Amino acid sequence: MIHGMSTTHRRAPGATQRSAAEVNEEIRALWLRAGGTLSGEQRREYQRLVLEWASATPRPHWHADSSKAA
User: Fold this and answer.
1) What is the pLDDT of residue 39?
2) How far apart are the C-alpha atoms of 17 and 51, rounded to whole Å?
3) What is d(CA 2, CA 35) in angstroms, rounded to the nearest whole number?
């Protein structure tokens, strides 16, 4: 049954990280399969995906210039 199949991608150790867009697509697919209500297992998968998405999301590099007085 395709509806119940997981789209989880398992990467081999040393494989490159997926982009935030790729992970976001998997999150959307999870919600669609779940019909808006996550089971316990789906909730755990969602939490894992959100953490993966957060680590893949580019962060701005803040550079504090300590040579300037406040």
Assistant:
1) 97
2) 12
3) 15
